What does this fold into?
Amino acid sequence: MRLLSGPLSMFGAKAQIAVAEKGIDCEVEMVPFSIKDRYSPTHPDVARINPKKQIPVLLHGAVEIFVSTQIFEYLEDRFPAPALWPASAESRAFARLMELKSDEVFFPSFFVLLQTLGDPQKPETQSALATIAAYYAEMDALLADRDYIAGDYSYADIAFMCVSFFTAFMGGVPDPDRQLAAWRKRMMARAAVAPVVHALALYLTENRLKAPAL
Ligand SMILES: N[C@@H](CCC(=O)N[C@@H](CS)C(=O)NCC(=O)O)C(=O)O
It folds into this structure.
């Protein structure tokens, strides 16, 4: 198995953590990336496989796929143990919903911060920070009676960990004494999560950017 990811890729980090959780023998290759030129030139396998020219891309025999959530689904079908979707249909539906919300509902606010560079003078920044704070409050309430987002540890946790790392980097930080902080500690205690998150933080500091506290 080969996974094409990037040194500062939120979606790539999702796939990297999932592969590590499954204990799969997988070559993780970082495609060319720099803060200045971003993903140019596009890695040839990314250009060949993904019409959107984005990472992550997973290659496994005849399987050549892209989009982090599609990669989750393939990993789960091909390597069912350890399970990373909960057992019951209801919990699975909830975990899938929360994984989707991380990418499609929460992520756009992070993206606003990226575009405004977190400039507090810009009204878009303030509005994105307010949306992020409200989402964190919602997650905090959810985590009051459980260790992980859908009860059992799942892809929903992996997705939210990745997006919240990048959001913290842009200055959107949850209150440290909330349930979310304890969840984050639990996440960072996982052997599959910590190395991926530390590598993202290291890339930031090596490029003279301030990594969020871990
Ligand atoms: N929905 C996609 C998003 C993938 C994505 O946005 N990848 C970024 C890196 S985190 C990328 O390759 N960007 C390069 C580009 O858009 O040119 C997923 O879940 O994998």
